[in-house]
Amino acid sequence: DIRPYVNVRLLKDRSKQQKAQLAQVITQALADICNAPAAGTHVVIDEVDRENWAVAGELVADRDS
Q1: Given 1, 4, 19, 65, which residue is catalytic?
Q2: What global pTM score does this model have?
């Protein structure tokens, strides 16, 4: 029995609706592609503050300024 666990890390400021839609799409993709049971699929969304995420050595919070 396959029970997937997916961990998604995003910058903060996504709406509850966006996160719900993302969880639904990921769950459906695993069901369609991997035949994973939707009822057993776990999607965890970790939200990260902009000052705790860097791209190319620069904090995202500093890029926004």
Answers
A1: 4
A2: 0.86
